[in-house]
Amino acid sequence: MKVFSSTCTFDYSWEEVSTANWRKYCPWNDKSTHVVAVDTLSRTVDSETGILRTERLITCDQSVPQWVLSLFGGSATSHVYEISYVDPKSKKVTMCSTNLTWSNVLNVQETVIYQPFSAKPNCTTNFHQEAKITALCGGWQKIKNKVEEASVERFSQNAKRGREGFEAVLEMSRRVFGEQRERENDRLQS
Amino acid sequence: MSASIAPECNDIKDKYDTCFLKWYSEKYLRGNTTSNDCDELFSKYKTCLNRVLKEKGIDSMLEDARKGNHENDTEHLRRS
C-alpha cells in the first residue's frame, strides 16, 4: 500500500468553500478536465444530527499508461463512488471516495476534509486529502509496486490540478454571488 | 454545473443542481435543515439517471461499493 496526502489552505470561508465544493467540476474549473460527469445518487439529511449525506458517481476519462491497459485491459473511462457528510454545526465536510472501475486490480480509498482553518476560522478553510492506494493483482511484488507508484503519481498530478481548478471556481463563485447580491440590493432600493 | 453521465438527463440534472445549491447556501447552511425544496426535481432526475446506470451495468458496481461503506456511515453520521 502507498499513501498520498496533502494539505492546503484556501482564503475563503468554510461556507463559501463547502458551497463551491458542490460545483468543483463545473466549466469554471478548466484544470480537472479528466472529470467528465458528476451525478448525485442520493441525498438525505439526518433528522437527529442535521448532517447532510450525499452519494455521488464521478465519471473520469483520462489517458491511462499503455502498459496498464495492456496488462489489465479495460477502457479509459472510470467511475468513482463518493459519499460525503456535511456537519453544519461543527463546520466539517468529509468526503470518502473509492474506485468502482478496476476494483479487482487496484483499491483507492480517498478521504478529503474541509474545516475552518484554526488561525483564521472565519475567512480561511483547511483542506486535507489522504489517499490509500493498494494494488490487488496477484503475483509479482514488482508489478504491484509499479502499479501503486504510477497510481500515486497520477493521483498527485490530479490533486495539484484539482487545487488550481478549485481556486478558479471559488473566485468565480464569489464574483457571481456578489453580483447577485448587488442586483437584489438594487431591486430592493428601486 | 457539471454534466451527467447520461446526456439525456443533463437538463433535469441542471435544474436540480441549481435548486440544491440555492437550498444549500440559503437554507441549509443557515440552520434550516428540514426543508425539501428540491425533492420533486431530484426524483425526476433520479428516474432518468437510474435507467442509464442500469443499462451501463453501473448499478451493480454501486451495490458492491455500498456494501463496503457501512463503516464510513458509522464514523461520520454521528456528531463529532
Can you offer a commentary on this structure?
The complex is a heterodimer of chains A (190) and B (80). Chain A is an alpha+beta fold. Chain A has one domain: Alpha-D-Glucose-1,6-Bisphosphate, Chain A, domain 4 (2-Layer Sandwich), CATH 3.30.530.20. Chain A has helices spanning 14-20, 66-72, 141-189; strands at residues 2-10, 35-45, 52-61, 77-87, 92-99, 106-116, 125-135. A seven-stranded antiparallel sheet of chain A has the order 1-7-6-5-4-3-2. The mean pLDDT of chain A is 88. Chain B has 80 residues and is mostly helical. Chain B has one domain (7-78). Chain B is 64% helix and 0% strand. Chain B contains four helices and no strands. Chain B has helices spanning 10-26, 39-55, 58-67, 70-76. In chain B, α1 (10-26) crosses α2. The model of chain B has no long low-confidence stretch (mean pLDDT 91). The chains are: A alpha+beta (190), B mainly alpha (80). Chain B: Keywords: Disulfide bond. Chain B: One of its GO terms (molecular function) is phosphatidic acid transfer activity. Chain B: It comes from Aspergillus bertholletiae. Chain B: This is Mitochondrial distribution/morphology family 35/apoptosis. Chain B: InterPro entries: MDM35_apoptosis (IPR007918).
